[in-house]
Amino acid sequence: xxxxxxxxxxxxxxxxxxxxxxxxxxxxxxxxxxxxxxxxxxxxxxxxxxxxxxxxxxxxxxxxxxxxxxxxxxxxxxxxxxxxxxxxxxxxxxxxxxxxxxxxxxxxxxxxxxxxxxxxxxxxx
Length: 125
Fold this sequence. Notes:
Elements: H1 6-26, E1 32-38, E2 44-52, E3 58-66, E4 71-75, E5 82-89, E6 94-100, E7 107-113, E8 118-124
Parallel strand pairs: 1-7
Antiparallel strand pairs: 1-4, 2-3, 2-5, 5-6, 7-8
C-alpha cells in the first residue's frame, strides 16, 4: 500500500481543482435567462429569436425539438437590456414579447407552449 506524500497530494489536488474550474464557470452565479416548456400534447419544434432593441443585435436564433413535459433552457442570453423575443412552432403558432432583463442574474423569462398558444411570463428567483 502506497502512503500519500505531500507531492502526490498537491499534484492530485491541483488536477482536481482544474477539473472543477470548468464546471463552475459554466453557470457561475447565474440563472437560466430563458426557459421554454412544452405543455402541448405532442413533441414540438420551436424556433426562438431574441433581438436587442437598442441596436437590433441578434442575441439568440435557435431551433429546438422539445418532448412533452420537457424544457429547453438558454443561459446568459440577455444581460441588463431590453429585447424582443419571437417564439414560433413548426405548426404555425407564434407570439412576440418585449422583455427587459435586469442586471440581476435572478431574473428570467419562461415561455410555455401548449396546443393552442405560446405564452410568456417573466420571473425573479
